[in-house]
Amino acid sequence: MRTINVDLGDRSYPILIGSGLLKDIAHYCAEAGFSERSPLLVVSDTEVAPRYLPALEEALRSHGYTVVSHIMTAGEASKSLAVYEEVMTTAIQAGLDRNSAVLALGGGVVGDLAGFVAATYMRGIGFLQIPTTILAHDSSVGGKVAVNHPLAKNMIGAFYQPSMVLYDLDTLRTLPARQVASGLAEVVKHGLLVDKEFAYWCRDHAEELLDLNVEALGYALERGCAIKADVVGNDEREHGLRAILNLGHTIGHAIEAVGGYGVFLHGEAIAIGMAGSALLAAKLGRDTSIYEDTVSMLSALSLPVRLPSEYDEDELMDAMMHDKKFKEGKMTFIVPDSIGSVSIVNDVQESLVREVLAELKKEERPW
Amino acid sequence: MRTINVDLGDRSYPILIGSGLLKDIAHYCAEAGFSERSPLLVVSDTEVAPRYLPALEEALRSHGYTVVSHIMTAGEASKSLAVYEEVMTTAIQAGLDRNSAVLALGGGVVGDLAGFVAATYMRGIGFLQIPTTILAHDSSVGGKVAVNHPLAKNMIGAFYQPSMVLYDLDTLRTLPARQVASGLAEVVKHGLLVDKEFAYWCRDHAEELLDLNVEALGYALERGCAIKADVVGNDEREHGLRAILNLGHTIGHAIEAVGGYGVFLHGEAIAIGMAGSALLAAKLGRDTSIYEDTVSMLSALSLPVRLPSEYDEDELMDAMMHDKKFKEGKMTFIVPDSIGSVSIVNDVQESLVREVLAELKKEERPW
Ligand SMILES: NC(=O)c1ccc[n+]([C@@H]2O[C@H](COP(=O)([O-])OP(=O)(O)OC[C@H]3O[C@@H](n4cnc5c(N)ncnc54)[C@H](O)[C@@H]3O)[C@@H](O)[C@H]2O)c1
Ligand SMILES: NC(=O)c1ccc[n+]([C@@H]2O[C@H](COP(=O)([O-])OP(=O)(O)OC[C@H]3O[C@@H](n4cnc5c(N)ncnc54)[C@H](O)[C@@H]3O)[C@@H](O)[C@H]2O)c1
Ligand SMILES: [Zn+2]
Ligand SMILES: [Zn+2]
Questions:
Q1: In this structure, what is the dihedral angle of CA atoms B257, B258, B259, B260, given to the nearest 10 degrees?
Q2: Which of B23, B86, B130, B331 is deepest in the core (most CB within 10 A)?
Q3: Exposed, middle or buried: residue B293 (CB in 10 Å: 0-12, 13-18, 19+)?
Q4: Which residues bind Zn(2+) (chains A, B) (predicted)?
């Protein structure tokens, strides 16, 4: 088992990564300080619950915990205030009290929503994350919890740290292949940000990662979580440094918004976005090998790196203007300086971004 | 002008109490650190907005602030997730960004809801409170923000401190007389908890307080806020000591729940509750003069101290059992030891509480 400690003063917590952790869930709940006298609420979705919930409930009940579960429809559409209210109703009806805790069993959607419930039920109760996707390695570090508003994603939320994160690698075996690759996009992103060696390691071990080899995957998730924990530890409430985590996300979010959520998965959209950031870097005078290497890494992981021609540049630009990453009208981009190092560049010209989008559609590069 | 500093480390903030503060609102917003480049959202209600909002907006705009306002229907029913979502929609449509702030212009309902919006819009933006009721002196200290769930009051919320509280005493002149008395119930509560002299002072200056004499009211609100700030400063997240603030609230909440909200105003319900706590004290062996003096203070402030006979003891007991103040099934009461001093008593017998309720309906006391 691998352990990463997310160091946030009195809100610090451990991330445990390994095989077979779920059968010891009661032990971990006790370690997290959850009392058997207060009901636990497990939040999961319709894809994950049938596979892993019965065993989880059984393991908890046989150790004296009272458990109630709320299963939401799988998919991003459930990350809404309406579902949030339904989960709150379940929590109240089950008699959750101030010593209770919420367990999020699922991917980032379940984690974000259940975390916002935990953050705001009686002004905050216990929270334990059990991520079942690779992408959720990202959402399990940093304490960002949220639901979407019909007008904008992740608009309503809080910063709320879990007591513990349990990453049981066995649950990843049932993840569809596209979801695996999508999650690995965020893993390699963490390498691109601050760890050159790890970024190339991901490329060189792409096959084992896509095959969910426990050794490789455990290491990749450990590094991914550790890098994110490091960035977040230096900037818990996103005042500055933490913004680098948005590498590829400005363009990626625009692609998701314009194409409709689910056409490209989140990791796929930000893979295109990361390719775009590397193109932008070239335009700003950085070495073109950054682009070439970024693309080779993403391609090795079966991720897309080109923008389909049907995406309209005007619509994408519009979507970016509405993106909350623009403070007071200025456009900010995270731009790679080399593999494993990035800068936050403010005042990026709109015309330059537009050029990048146009070139992202083409096979050939201008150099 | 009177200033109280709520001391919470890097979340500390000042409460300013005085006449004519609102005309300088732009100055205070600048002092709170709000930028003119990011829109401000004023949340108010249908009673308060027609009286004070136009001048407030004008004062802000003439100093270069962009302002958008959301006016909700006056009353507790607006403290709901549905209205919360509406305010969020207004905020997004107005383009509020991470440097924006929410201004709550109104009583506790507006303050609690607007505060929860501020706490959760983009995971937290600026928040400034402009309380326009006396009761809101209580909600403006402590950072508790919330909305109600149909099944339980204040169930959904957060701890979120404002940047500043502006108490303009002039706005209190239009407050209906019953609301004035109701607010004074929480003021005298703060005296009953920790300040004997202040509690008797309230009784002796009851007439000036009910008349909204600026000198007396300014002093009473200053003491009320300062006492609450002191309690909260020692226990920001309600782990222990802060529970004393619930004096009179267990019975009071049950009265509100059983009678229907609005039959008794909150302060009226907790006045009966505080009389009940003093009766409970007598039953637990404390001096009966505590009860006599408590009742004389509340009566001087035109507050009720008897439970109307139509309130059913079984229903009240039921409501108390559902009250979130009961941890893991045990009944906890805040019990006065003398005027200006209280204890947290766990394991209060259900039968004793039932006796108190029965006696609260009678004119005569058993001694
Ligand atoms: N909080 C953060 O810091 C943060 C960071 C990144 C992403 N996110 C959020 O995370 C969400 C995306 O996360 P995600 O990709 O995990 O989405 P997801 O939770 O929707 O999971 C993807 C799909 O896989 C299914 N699934 C999950 N685990 C499975 C398993 N073990 N076996 C089979 N199927 C399984 C789900 O039911 C779903 O259909 C987005 O809402 C995004 O905003 C949050
Ligand atoms: N957050 C906390 O710590 C805390 C503490 C105590 C109470 N509360 C909450 O506060 C709420 C009650 O507060 P409240 O009594 O101020 O209720 P309120 O906001 O509903 O105000 C009472 C009534 O007076 C009207 N009003 C307000 N100011 C006025 C003015 N200046 N002139 C004329 N009319 C005016 C309002 O429109 C409303 O109809 C409850 O929801 C309670 O849960 C919160
Ligand atoms: Zn992402
Ligand atoms: Zn109260």
A1: 40
A2: B130
A3: buried
A4: 186, 249, 266
Q: Which of B238, B292, B313, B355 is catalytic?
A: B238
Report the range of poorest mean pLDDT among A150-154, A194-198, A327-331.
A327-331
ipTM comes to 0.92
Report the pLDDT averaged over residues A107-125: 98
- A249-287 pLDDT, tens digit per residue, is 999 999 998 998 778 999 999 999 999 999 999 999 999
Instruction: Say how far apart CA A304 and CA A197 lie, in whole Å.
Output: 22
| pLDDT bracket for residue A133 (50, 70, 90) | very high
**Taking CB atoms and an 8 Å limit, are A88 and B35 in contact across chains?**
no
Q: Is the pLDDT of residue B224 over 90?
A: yes
Residues of chain A contacting B93 with CB distance shorter than 8 Å: 151
Using CA atoms, how far apart are residues B343 and B193, in angstroms rounded to an integer? Answer: 9
Matching CATH topology for B2-172 and B177-360?
Answer: no
- Give the pLDDT confidence of A287-302 residue by residue, as tens digits: 999 999 999 999 999 9
**CB contact (8 A) between residue B328 and residue A159:** no
Residue indicated by tokens 């009784």: B203
Please indicate whether, in this complex, the C-beta atoms of B98 and A324 are within 8 angstroms of each other.
yes
Question: By a Cβ cutoff of 8 Å, what residues of chain B touch chain A?
Answer: 35, 37-38, 81, 85, 88-89, 92-93, 97-99, 119-124, 144, 146, 149, 151-152, 155-159, 237-238, 324, 326-328
* Cα A110 to averaged position of ligand 1 atoms, centre (Å): 7
Class of domain B2-172: alpha beta
Which residues of A are part of a known binding site for NAD(+)? Answer: 108-112, 132-133, 144, 153, 171-174
Residues in chain B with CB shorter than 8 Å from the CB of A96 are none
* DSSP class of B264: B
Helices (H), B11-135: 25-31, 49-61, 81-93, 108-120
Taking CB atoms and a 6 Å cutoff, what residues make up the pocket around ligand 2?
B 45, 47-48, 74-76, 79, 106-110, 112, 132-133, 135-136, 138-139, 142, 144, 154, 171-172, 174-175, 179, 266
- The whole-chain average pLDDT of chain A stands at 94
Distances B204 to B170, B300, B320 between C-alpha atoms, Å: 23, 8, 33
pLDDT in tens, B176-221: 999 999 999 999 999 999 999 999 999 999 999 999 999 999 999 9
CA-nearest residue of chain B to A121? B156
The CA–CA distances, whole Å, from A75 to A109, A143, A200 equal: 7, 21, 32
Beta-sheet pairing, B333-338 with B341-345? antiparallel
CATH architecture of the domain covering B177-360: Up-down Bundle (1.20)
The answer to whether the CB atoms of A123 and B158 lie below 8 A apart is: yes
Tell me which of A366 and A189 has the higher pLDDT: A189
Instruction: Compute the mean pLDDT over every residue in chain B, rounded to the nearest whole number.
Output: 94
CA dist A161 and B336 (Å) reads: 38
SS3 state of residue B307: coil
Instruction: Mark whether B228 is an active-site residue.
Output: yes
Domain ranges of chain B: 2-172, 177-360
Predicted pLDDT of residue B327: 53
Ligand 1 pocket test, candidate residues A105, A110, A112, A153, most atoms within 8 A of CB: A112
- Measured from the Cα of B182, ligand 2's closest atom is 15
Three-class SS of residue A238? Answer: coil
The answer to whether B186 is a known ligand-binding residue is yes
